[in-house]
Design goal:
Distance between the termini: 31 Å
Oligomer: single chain
Largest sheet: 8 strands, parallel
Strand content: 5-15%
Helix content: 40-55%
Structural class: alpha/beta
Shape: globular
Radius of gyration: 28 Å
Number of strands: 27
Length: about 800
């Protein structure tokens, strides 16, 4: 690639903020020190898309964003300022929007003979005989027959073809099923026949019954779908990108953009959903040999990126969780656990909450995927006389238990080349052992056979297919069970409830951080906030402080609960939701009533305990909203929260700046999420897609140039300290690229508070020093840093530093330090 990645800036494009708006910000980003604009997907998505992941045409640039001309203008602006483009691509799925998705429309119209039939992961011969050769479309609000008889389905002619209409939705009619297809074309006769069919429910039903699709009530998606979705999203269907023709069709435009120099790097969305991610990356790397390749791969703590993937790294969730863990005090674990259990009555450990949540989503939301997997397991058993007597129910239960026992998103067995790493084999064996322990009522031999299949020791070709499909389901199980369920149930310390994080692991050590950095790729991405994080980076930084003052936090919760009691309705909401609200207010304060209500509404529905998206509980929902509005409208309560947050603010700002400097200087490429160059206190999507005031940021960037460190810290309340540090260190990355591309070496900090400092050396020439666990730290005392021999300059203060420097001197006027060897 022509432009080496130094720092990225994530933009969320949409119709209201398209290519022209992004191009207008390029001068600002260049001045900030960004090397690459990191763009959300730009291919044609469904009309009105707010994120771009619902692609309907991989061969076209989004017209709503500005089309090909608008994209060219953006690229021209980037190149004029010496910047490049990192593009988010979506190869794993498409939106079902019809007729915008021409591929899917054609499959619905022509069935298995469609030229695009192999593009989607459809089971044309599912376990349910009545659905053989049909695609189930759970698009109706009630049973099909009732909707038909109510006149809510009708035949229309549109765009020169016959379609079935249901309100604004359309479904194609196969021309071969039109009753008058062999007659001479006559518009009047055709119109009359359409009118006659619409007037006769039996005739309309007969015509619909001949199609390659079957309309059904929306609830049927939970168990009877015959195709793979993206997670449990009914509007997104999985692509068979492992098929060479599908790959070519979905990547032709992307390849051209890279070859033309318009795109420098690719961020691949959700590779874990693919059948063979390793094969995919092999093919992609061959097509774009010099591009910067990143995978949105969610690694749990202590999990490594697959070595076989020919890519540059991940999109940074692993770093975000590791770095945040440095600021969580392990000493606070016991008191915060006691407080959480006493206040909420929730006593289950994290591992149990996660497992229970995964079991629930498997049975309630991923039932269709599980049923298709069980059908394949049945076929494997049927071909083996020693296992053919297991029932479908037993097989489904075994699969469910093993999926729920996985502690990673997926493994990467490749039956076609009989490849399975030792690490993956260990994870499979551990998951099977966990399932066997939880379900002693199931035959141990069944679990043993499943383990042999998943580790590629049994089952032949059928078993290999089962192993591959199992891996495609384990990722959604983790994502929906943990990220989108358990994280909204377990609230001991919300700072830990992050994508790729482990809420059961209370903090990370400095040694762990050093070990990770020593092994990290210098081209991996380092993230703080992303479009998928549950909370913004500064929200998490503030919440981490609760681990450092559990007694004070417990006292505050007790006071607040007393003030809030009068706002409850018949004992609702539950104490767990109340505890979630209090932490949310602390992390995001000041926050509006409407944002708080929206977040708590989403959190309650994601938790799936008292209310859900598919089965809402109006009584609970109303009580929860009334409680949120009530407490935030209570002057005494709001004053209490504001006062408590005020006691945290100095430490929170120091923690945020420490996290930022770690991200800017650790091995890798730092990312800045839109707007987070100032304090970033957004909550989960869609809160983190609110408009950003770039006018304020441009003005402040103009002001920070001549500022001293002391000046910047003096204006920390405005976010100036964060913007100043970001600009200063990104300038250093531009001036001294060799320092950030070189080695990583931990530095020793001596003294009583040495364990409260993270210090390291980059390429032997750049020293980085950040404090941690600063609550209650009144003085650094004898804590000092011993630098290697040489003359050192304090970059942030432009002063000379001796080889042995006290932390009191080094951090006297600004919370973090960067030292440059002269």
């Amino acid at each position: 690639m022509s432009i080496q990645p130094r720092a990225t800036y994530r933009m969320q494009l949409r119709a209201e903020f398209g290519f022209a708006a992004a191009a207008a910000l390029v001068p600002y980003l260049a001045e900030l020190g960004i090397s690459h604009l990191y763009s959300s997907p730009i291919l044609q998505a469904v009309p009105g898309s707010t994120h771009g992941y619902d692609v309907v045409d991989h061969a076209a640039i989004s017209a709503e964003l500005g089309g090909a001309d608008g994209f060219a203008t953006l690229v021209e602006a980037l190149h004029a300022h010496g910047m490049g483009l990192l593009l988010d691509i979506v190869p794993n799925h498409m939106a079902l929007g019809v007729p915008q998705n021409r591929w899917w429309w054609d499959v619905l119209k022509h069935g298995q003979v469609s030229r695009y039939a192999r593009a989607f992961d459809v089971d044309w011969q599912p376990a349910e005989p009545r659905l053989a050769g049909k695609i189930l479309l759970p698009a109706l609000p009630d049973h099909y027959g009732r909707v038909l008889e109510a006149g809510a389905l009708w035949l229309v002619e549109q765009d020169g073809e016959l379609q079935i209409a249901h309100h604004q939705e359309r479904f194609p009619i196969d021309p071969a099923t039109i009753p008058w297809r062999d007659q001479e074309p006559d518009e009047a006769i055709a119109a009359r026949r359409v009118t006659e069919i619409n007037a006769d429910p039996e005739a309309l039903d007969a015509l619909i019954g001949q199609q390659h699709w079957r309309l059904a009530r929306w609830t049927a998606s939970a168990n009877d779908l015959g195709y793979r979705r993206f997670f449990d999203v009914d509007t997104l269907i999985g692509l068979r990108v492992e098929d060479a023709n599908v790959y070519e069709a979905t990547h032709e435009l992307i390849r051209e953009q890279v070859a033309d120099g318009a795109v420098d790097g690719l961020r691949v969305d959700h590779p874990d959903g693919m059948r063979d991610p390793t094969g995919y990356f092999d093919r992609l790397r061959a097509d774009v040999p010099h591009a910067w390749l990143l995978a949105e791969k969610i690694l749990v703590p202590d999990e490594a990126l697959p070595e076989a993937w020919p890519i540059d790294g991940t999109t940074g969730y692993d770093f975000a969780n590791l770095a945040l863990g440095l600021f969580v005090d392990p000493a606070g674990e016991a008191p915060l656990t006691d407080l959480y259990q006493a206040f909420t009555g929730e006593t289950a450990p994290w591992a149990d909450v996660a497992r229970t949540s995964k079991l629930q989503v498997l049975r309630e939301r991923l039932g269709s995927d599980l049923n298709r997997l069980a059908a394949r397991f049945l076929a494997v058993c049927e071909s083996d006389r020693r296992h053919r007597d297991f029932t479908r129910h037993e097989l489904r239960e075994a699969l469910t238990e093993v999926l729920a026992s996985f502690d990673v998103y997926r493994t990467y067995a490749r039956p076609q080349v009989h490849a399975l790493t030792d690490a993956d084999a260990r994870r499979i064996r551990a998951a099977v052992a966990g399932a066997r322990e939880h379900r002693p009522d199931l035959d141990p031999g069944l679990f043993g056979f499943l383990e042999e299949i998943l580790t590629l020791r049994s089952g032949g070709d059928l078993g290999g297919d089962l192993a591959m499909r199992f891996q495609q389901i384990s990722g959604p199980t983790m994502a929906k069970g943990v990220e989108d369920t358990a994280f909204y149930r377990y609230h001991r310390l919300l700072a830990l409830n992050e994508v790729g994080g482990d809420p059961g692991r209370f903090g990370r050590t400095v040694a762990e951080f050093h070990a990770w950095c020593s092994a990290a790729s210098r081209r991996t991405m380092l993230a703080g906030t992303t479009h998928d994080t549950k909370r913004g980076e500064d929200v998490r930084a503030r919440l981490a402080l609760l681990s450092q003052l559990p007694v004070e936090w417990g006292a505050a919760v007790t006071r607040w609960s007393g003030l809030a009691e009068g706002h409850r309705t018949d004992g609702l909401p539950d104490r767990n939701a109340e505890y979630l609200l209090y932490q949310t207010l602390v992390g995001a304060w000041p926050i509006s009533v409407e944002r708080s209500v929206a977040f708590m509404h989403k959190a309650a529905h994601e938790a799936k305990r008292y209310t859900t998206w598919t089965a809402p509980n109006p009584r609970y929902d109303a009580a929860l909203e009334a409680f949120v509005r009530g407490v935030l409208g209570d002057a005494a309560f709001s004053a209490e929260v504001a006062a408590f947050v005020d006691t945290l603010e100095d430490a929170a700002r120091r923690t945020s700046l420490a996290l930022l400097l770690l991200r800017l200087t650790a091995p890798g490429v730092p990312d800045v999420y839109r707007g987070s160059e100032l304090w970033e206190r957004s909550l989960v999507d869609p809160d983190n897609r609110r408009p950003v005031d770039f006018g304020v940021r441009r003005r402040l960037l103009d002001e920070v140039g001549p500022m001293t460190a002391a000046d910047a810290w003096q204006r920390a309340g405005e976010g100036v300290a964060k913007l100043w540090l970001l600009r200063r260190v990104l300038a250093l990355r531009s001036e001294r690229p060799e320092a950030f591309a070189g080695s990583y070496q931990p530095l020793t900090v001596d003294g009583a508070s040495g364990d409260r400092v993270v210090a390291f050396l980059r390429n032997g020439t750049l020293a980085v020093v950040v404090p941690r666990l600063v609550v209650g730290l009144s003085s650094w005392g004898d804590t000092a840093l011993e630098l290697p021999e040489g003359s050192w300059r304090d970059v942030l203060h432009d002063r000379q530093i001796d080889g042995h420097v006290s932390l009191s001197e080094l951090l006297a006027t600004f919370p973090v330090a960067v030292l440059e060897r002269q």
